[in-house]
Design brief:
1 helix; single chain; 3-stranded antiparallel β-sheet; 67 residues; alpha+beta
């Protein structure tokens, strides 16, 4: 198995950071999103809502099961 070079590791880290910024910023104004997590103990789920305070819009709503 080939060892990963430092350059490849840096590029991978940069792509990862870029992805996280894109997922956690408003697509309209690039302001960081406010993430709200609600845990429901009864059906063991977590509701995630992403909201932009600048644009006053909800950009994402997901429901995840707890493991």
């Amino acid at each position: 198995m080939e060892e990963m070079t430092r350059e490849k590791m840096v590029k991978r880290q940069q792509r990862y950071q870029s992805f996280l910024r894109a997922m956690n910023c408003c697509p309209l104004c690039s302001t960081p999103l406010t993430l709200i997590h609600e845990i429901n103990e009864d059906d063991e789920s977590i509701k995630e809502t992403a909201h932009c305070d600048q644009c006053d819009i909800e950009t994402r709503r997901k429901e995840h099961s707890r493991h």
